[in-house]
Queue: 4 jobs
Job 1
Amino acid sequence: MILLAASLFFAHPAPLEMPKAEAYLVKERDGAVRLEDRYDTLDLWTSRAVVGRWEDDDGRQFMVARLDKVAPKFAEATATREEYGRNERPLDRRKDLDQRDDAISRLLPFEMPDQPARPRQMVRGFRDVLYYQGTNTSVLACAFLPDRPQAPWYLACWELLPGDDPEQAADRFESEFLGQWDACLQGNLRSEALLNDARAERAPKRSKTRLGERELLRADARHSVTNYLDWHVTEAPEFSVLDDLPPVVKFVPTLTNEFATMRRRYAEVVPTPIDGSNVLCVARIFKDRDEYLDTVGDELKWSAAYWCPSRRELVAYLPEGGARDLLKTIRHEAFHQYLSYATSMISVSPWFNEGYAVYFEDEEAAAWDLGEVEVNVDELAQALPALLLMDQSQFYDGSNLERRVKYRLAWSIARFIEKGAPEVRFQPFKDLKKRYVEALLKTHDMQKATAYAFVNKDNLDLFVREWKKFWKGE
């Protein structure tokens, strides 16, 4: 691992984002349907080239990238991870100087100058050192080639603060970073070795190809934290958990035991026609809320966890209530994760998505849990049809109390479907969930899927009446 975690450059690690994915449904010859993730090849290349990001106590950002693969020429090209791996080409450190410059230009946070500059005196231990400053003074950008056999080019970018002296920053960079490069080289090599190991697991058979996609995703998830001293990786066949929790928190073993059980339970309650054999559940758990907010941003500052479909990762933090509360939150978000894969990443109606997520926090919970707010079943029954047609913006809009009421109303629908609907005469709602998933996959429209699931207005009215009877205990 990197040994400079206490230095200016490696003070606070910033885990790398997973590359954005687009979901496609692929029909096999035997009729099975599976989910295929495709990526912008430049985004995939960037996520693997960057080996780490850090921030110092004052807010200066620091990034290191490894330039050992040729950058894709066309950013709009897409590919699966395996297709990308089959077509990527190593960057020859001696011959591919144009490709090296192209890779650097794609990673620099400013326009690349026409000519780089070299230090007044070559830094010991390096064959070459190039500064790409031009007229820029806010970011120190340096490409360097270590003087050791087969070592690739690297790029470091250090974002300075207003008032920082660029010349003093360059002197410090050379003495404290380049001067100690050997101490961190092992960590960077380790991340690349892990990625190569995953690629080697590919096999020509189709079934092995699916496993290869899963293992390549696992390698990319591992790569996103492998150069951070405080981060750990825990893995099982269906998931990878990344965390920087302190050693005293005994949470991850409990989570690893429950993850597989939870996913089986989700599949029993909400089955899907999609083959999920190539799916990997990635969870990233921060030790505190501040780290979590740095990742998810102000838009989600009200949240306790977040499933990011585009990045294919579940993000959470250790709450004040400890591991028990965190596990409850994970059960909730892991259902969002499962349902996203089960519905090909198509937006799902909040009544279904949030209702069952809250239901799975504790399947035995039967109370409305609205605090001091009085539960009026008749009034809530009147609000139920409108809630069934809400999209995400409508569902999450409003005050904290209004959102809480909508969450609990959605939960009440899920609990009724599971506990009350089977007791209704002739079971008119038996296939409701199946119809919803089928319609969503066909129409890509959550409101059309809801309408199809409830068949017609008479059936919806019957649902509301039976829901009201259930919650009144009649």
Note: The chain is about 45% helix and 15% strand.
Job 2
Amino acid sequence: MNARTDRLPGQSADRMARLAMRVYARMAARIAEAFGEQYAASRLGPMLRLEVAADGLEPMPWLAAQHTLPRLYWADREQRRGVAGVGLADRLALVPGMTPAELVERTASRLQDASPGVRYYGGFRFDAAAEVSAEWQPFGLGWLALPRFELVREGGRIRFACNAFPGRDSRARLLEELGGLVCDIEPLPAVAPPARHQDLPSRGVWTSLVREVTDSLGRGELCKLVLARRTEMVFAERPEALALLAALTRRSGPCFHFYFNPGGDTAFLGASPERLFHRRGRHFGTEALAGTRARGATGAEDDALRAELLNCGKDGREHACVVRYLENRLAPLTAGATEAKALQVLGLPHVQHLHVGLSGDLEPGVSDAALLDSLHPTPAVAGDPPPQALRRIAALEPFDRGWYAGPVGYVGAEESEFAVGIRSGLLHDRELALYVGAGIVQGSDAAMEWRELESKMVSLRAAWTDE
């Protein structure tokens, strides 16, 4: 087995390579045992997950070493669980005429007899009806994938897993794919600043767009519209996508961290502070996140900005719009009232947001598909009402959002979770397109909204600067 590994402090490359080889050897023995010469597929079930201990290996550096595609990474906001996945055991893709909710429903049907650890990871376009641009073609309309191999960090332990379908996966095939994994793990390189960058739209065009939107809001067509900005950055050399993600993980605070590389040199990655929904059993949680201020340079300045955010009428209206929407959409799905927590300020290293959490218990028969269908897109990333907002966004924004602001996460039998794919970027070769957005309501000022975009962009630029 050949290789590449992240040389962690106190761990030599040779030691890490030997560790990886031992982990792979233990998995090979598990595969040989499960898929014996006379194994019966019916005895093993429709889906099989094999796991071995892998303490000492780190998911993100291990993933950067692998050449097998596709590759993905997902870590929850609380950093309880991080998963690096390579290869494909199974994948369901969204096709024209199918909704994301329908794909989630089909995925759930495959999980009925699966082990608790089996999860399908992936995401969807922000607007499935919008035309897919060439740069977003590798991601399609959306998909959910079960990796062939996973390195999972959970509860202070590391496990290496293999997912298989006994009816179609043979022992020889699994061992061949296992043999293609890399053992050597090199340090993730530092990320050099980009050589140049360009904002789309430019600040002048942004000012005109905000004026056009606020004029239409005054006529009652919408009560809110979220406009996004794309900042295109070109590097002298292609940056390592997982080095970018590792830097974001260190500097972004409590966020969902994700990376999807469907093939080739294209990857979508980000550090999102916003949960779309989390479900465990019948209990679920979601949240309204809107309204933004930068963090202060001193404690006093930070407190002043926080108070300004809490007392700003414009930000209050923007946030209340999201809360009302969520409560209305959740009412038919829940058993009893949905509980809304008190308004808080979510503090991140570079920005702070108004935040309200909502939770409750789902009615019998209400699935992840129903939650996804009801909640995406929220007014926090589209506008209100969302259908009209989607049409306006498609007409006004000079780029395809792709998976930006779309649902990204996983579906499992006992537990599912999706984040909103904001504070994210699309990397293709040496070009990185970063996306941030701002909610426009009556009273919005173009200059202030531009400053909000800049504050959000700092959290992404921090991957290669000391901001």
Note: The mean pLDDT is 91.
Job 3
Amino acid sequence: MAPQSRLVVHEDGEITKIEFLDRNILEEASIQQIGDEIGALIDNATNPKLLISFENVEHLSSAALGTLITINNKIRQKGGQLRLANIDKQIYEVFVITKLNKLFQIHANNEKALKSFK
């Protein structure tokens, strides 16, 4: 039996909105599963447009950041777009320290992120 999804996925026109069920994304197994689930969404899309909301997330491990980079690369290979939104201030600090805030398009909220898609 497949493990229960760690994600809430909504289709909003051509944009796929993803939210996390977990407040803490720290465990290797969960991160692997999240990566696989999002990877499958990208594989099934012709021109993937993903918005990942971190609304309820309080902690992210470095492995989770690595998975985000992989997801970003996959989307770019397909000519798609990725937006991140609602990132907690403490988590955002990590994005700044690791310079990932330059790699990802990060928005204050879902509405701003949705408007940024071309």
Note: The CA atoms of residues 33 and 47 lie 22 Å apart.
Job 4
Amino acid sequence: MKLKQELEARWFLHQYTHEELFDIYEKWGEKLYWWIDPSADSFQLGNFISLLNALNVMKRWNKLYLIVWWATGMIGNPTWKDAERNFLTAEQVEENARKIEAQIHVILKNVSDKIGVKLEVEVVNNLKFFKNLNVLDFMREVGKYMTVNWMMNKDIVKKRITDPDKSISYAEFSYMLIMGYDFYKLYTENGVRLEVWWSDEWDGILSGVELTGKKTWQTVYGMTNKLITDSTWRKFWKSEWNAIWLDPTKNSPYFVYQYLLNCSDEDVEKLLKLLTFMDLDEIEEITKKHLAEPELRYWQKQLANYTTEIIFWKKASNQAEMISDMLFWNKDKLEILKTLTKDDLEALAKETGSTNFTSWLIILDALINSWLASSRWDGRKLIEWGWIYLNETKVTDWFAEITDGDFINSAIILRKWKKNFKLVLR
């Protein structure tokens, strides 16, 4: 499948500057860039979709320049939000950039191992383009070539200027100049000819194409992917209220896995094309298998397993699947418990909650310690109603003691009702 055809089939392609770019990047050995703004110390699943757009170009043996926007992050871009972002300190930007770069290196290695193609990447801190450039030189190098008329005509600026209740600072207004200079420097110093990002940065991409063309009389290219919406027309993972972070300390691999597992049937086929490198024929076979028995959620399981694996690696994906099986599927939980490693038990305990074993621990105290009951009276009522299980056996004795013999692989499963699980660990 040709590059343009594949990007369209996978729901990526939205805007592009020149038709010829697809023929150029069909061949190996070209260079492109994708950037990340270190406004936070992790990037999100929404950014990940845009990165995958770049990786689908990159897997045809093209080299990626990953630009960490150290300098640009100090200014803040004129987003579609009504107000400007607060400035970060240099130390905050540096720390955020370091963490994001480490995350992306993990993802690139995981994708390389998954698809069997070595993905060549070079990280560039764009501070190096600006740290020795004074304001007068910047005006001569960049400002002279970009007209205010051109910048004012861009939607992202126009929205903030024409509305009397909104405004834009000169810093944010100059953001397009800084972004354009990035592209110019990457082209003149490294031969990079393509920028790839979300469609909401189209104006910034065009500034790089415009500036580079005026200063070098050469053509460079831009391409964006669509803003992805679900079946209810909400943006996927692109806002603070529904951010899915790719840092396991912010939300666990299980959280990402479970989020994808719960995607609706209306969304999952599109997400399989966007979030995985599966052949389209393979996705079609998965679709057929799912539609034959939709209650098994085969579609969603394939999506969740694959995506969690390339973000966090296979061990994390396996753990997430195991936790999901323990909590939500009619699997033999005791047999699963026997196979778990220490790391698996710690991951399960983190997601479900746990309490530690002490001598003379009775079931009522274990329920309170693990927050399954609020008091002994509450615990007694739960046992009377037949809602408490120890290792999947119904508890009938209020004062039953938990002993060493109850442990399976250093853990005990306490369950309230159908799906409220806790572990007792020793």
Note: The chain has three domains: 3-227, 253-330, 349-425.
